[in-house]
Amino acid sequence: MTDEQLLKRISVDPAVMLGKPVIKGTRLTVELVIDRLAHGATAADLMKEYEALQPEDVAACLLFAKKSLSDTDYMPLLAEAS
Hints:
Radius of gyration: 14 Å
Strand order of the largest sheet: 1-2
CATH class: Mainly Alpha
Number of domains: 1
Distance between the termini: 46 Å
Largest sheet: 2 strands, antiparallel
């Protein structure tokens, strides 16, 4: 699947989940998927819990996050000790 095809699986609508990016046709936010993956869930775990979720949806969330971060300037989250 191309990047464009994957990103079409994500929608942003102010009337759905306060405008947070979601997997199209669901109320599953990109943020939720990324958070669950970050805390040890696998794509298979997510698809078992959310039966409508497809592997391409998980890939779309990761790609959306990557693209969202690609043009961002970063500041440290914590001050480094001197």
